[in-house]
Automatic annotation (TrEMBL):
Organism name: Trichonephila clavata
GO biological process: DNA biosynthetic process
UniProt-listed PANTHER family: PHD-TYPE DOMAIN-CONTAINING PROTEIN (PTHR47331), RIBONUCLEASE H (PTHR47331:SF5)
Protein name according to UniProt: Peptidase aspartic putative domain-containing protein
Taxonomic path: Eukaryota, Metazoa, Ecdysozoa, Arthropoda, Chelicerata
Length: 433
């Protein structure tokens, strides 16, 4: 063999009991649509089974596949050098591959060191403990690629740079091919049973809420309090929220772009400005005094824009705050927040309740999303910029603009439905008690 073919391998730390770190060898595989972990690793780390799933696994070159029920475990993988991590769910399997997976050679490591590239794989093991499929690859890979040679590139990730390609010319007889297609057995092999299940909709008990969602709900209920004639709650943070940057410059540039639009539409500017003043009067937002030399790198700044709905009888202009804003290789506010379970009411149950009585009542909570308060320590992550008072729609970026933070919530955020839906459920539960 005159050279080596490198796959996207990396090293990751896992905290085991008693408080010690175990380093695992992992690999990204875009040809797999599920993630896998060795059973011996699960037993070593004493990982708890969070779910079971009936799956059919099709391996490369196989004609037939076996139907089996597999354990699903949850594991948090952490960067060896930095505090970056990801929580995944993986299928427990006895063997991932019998092939020897090559790791970057000393020659490649020296090239990376000269170029200031931090390689993700610092191990010498050729055995894979965890295989990450396409279900999590997008959360791991970054946006930057560095070409090391004609056939070798380094791909950015939260674990460092993953080296992939040919190291020199290759005349290799051993080939590692790892595409895996995993089918949910419930979807393809038991269609007749699904027909029967349609007959029992609303009769059989609902599917169990996953353990992770139960923990989120428990945390939410513990951190929700009734104060000043409203409910206040904390944002549902993930473990890696410390990596969140303020995005002040991005919010400032977005405001500059918005001002260009408002210059062309004076009527929209007046409605926009009046909405912010109305939110200020109602206590939905508060004015924040910020020292631009010291405080702009704390918390998080939300870009915002207007949604115009002329067909609406009531609110024709609505301000939407965008919580998915992020710079290159950085996290957004949405990336740092849990989504939680679906809190929307069951449509079937609503339709059935309409048949119980002769008269049905329907009501809507005006500005429902604005009824839930955010605790003071989390408001710094809901800051936004607005044009200085008396400046009209013309924006001068050379001078400080007005800073506000949201008391209540009205922003394009993945955690928003759970905060609203479960706040209402929590309120109903306490009233009934």
């Amino acid at each position: 063999m005159q050279g080596t073919v490198l796959l996207q391998t990396f090293s990751a730390l896992v905290t085991a009991k008693p408080k010690r770190n175990v380093q695992l060898c992992c690999m990204l595989d875009g040809g797999a649509n599920k993630s896998f972990i060795l059973r011996e690793v699960v037993e070593l780390l004493d990982l708890k089974v969070v779910d079971k799933e009936a799956l059919v696994i099709h391996t490369f070159g196989s004609e037939a596949a076996e139907k089996r029920t597999y354990d699903i475990v949850e594991i948090t993988l952490q960067n060896v050098q930095a505090n970056k991590k990801i929580k995944i769910q993986a299928v427990v399997i006895d063997s991932i591959t019998s092939a020897r997976i090559q790791v970057p050679s000393k020659f490649i490591r020296n090239i990376a060191l000269e170029r200031g590239i931090e390689l993700a794989d610092n191990s010498t093991s050729e055995r894979i403990h965890v295989l990450i499929g396409s279900d999590y690859i997008s959360e791991i890979l970054g946006e930057r690629n560095i070409r090391i040679s004609k056939r070798l590139i380094a791909v950015d990730s939260i674990f460092g740079y993953l080296v992939q390609g040919k190291e020199g010319e290759v005349n290799c007889k051993d080939i590692s091919a790892n595409p895996l297609i995993v089918e949910n057995e419930e979807l393809d092999l038991d269609r007749v049973r699904n027909l029967w299940s349609l007959e029992t909709i609303g009769i059989n008990p609902d599917n169990k809420v996953p353990l992770s969602d139960k923990e989120i709900l428990k945390s939410f209920e513990q951190n929700t309090v009734y104060t000043n004639k409203r409910y206040e709650t904390q944002l549902l943070w993930k473990e890696d929220s410390r990596e969140l940057k303020s995005k002040y410059e991005i919010a400032k540039r977005r405001l500059f772009g918005l001002s260009k639009t408002l210059e062309k539409n004076e009527e929209l500017y007046l409605k926009y400005d009046e909405l912010i003043k109305e939110h200020l009067r109602d206590g939905i937002v508060e004015r924040v005094n910020i020292n631009l030399d010291k405080n702009i790198n704390t918390g998080y700044y939300l870009p915002h824009h207007a949604i115009v709905r002329e067909q609406k009888d009531s609110t024709k202009v609505r301000i939407v705050f965008y919580a998915s804003s992020k710079g290159k290789g950085a996290l957004s506010l949405n990336d740092c927040l849990e989504t939680g379970p679906n809190s929307n009411p069951d449509l079937l149950k609503i339709l059935l309740r309409f048949r119980l009585h002769k008269v049905a009542f329907w009501a809507d909570i005006q500005r429902s999303f604005l009824k839930i308060g955010i605790v003071e320590e989390d408001r710094q992550f809901l800051k936004f910029l607005w044009i200085k008072e008396g400046g009209g729609s013309n924006l001068d970026l050379s001078t400080p603009n007005r800073n506000f933070s949201l008391h209540e919530k009205e922003f394009c955020c993945q955690v928003q439905p759970i905060l609203t839906g479960h706040s209402h459920k929590t309120a109903r539960g306490k009233i009934c008690k």
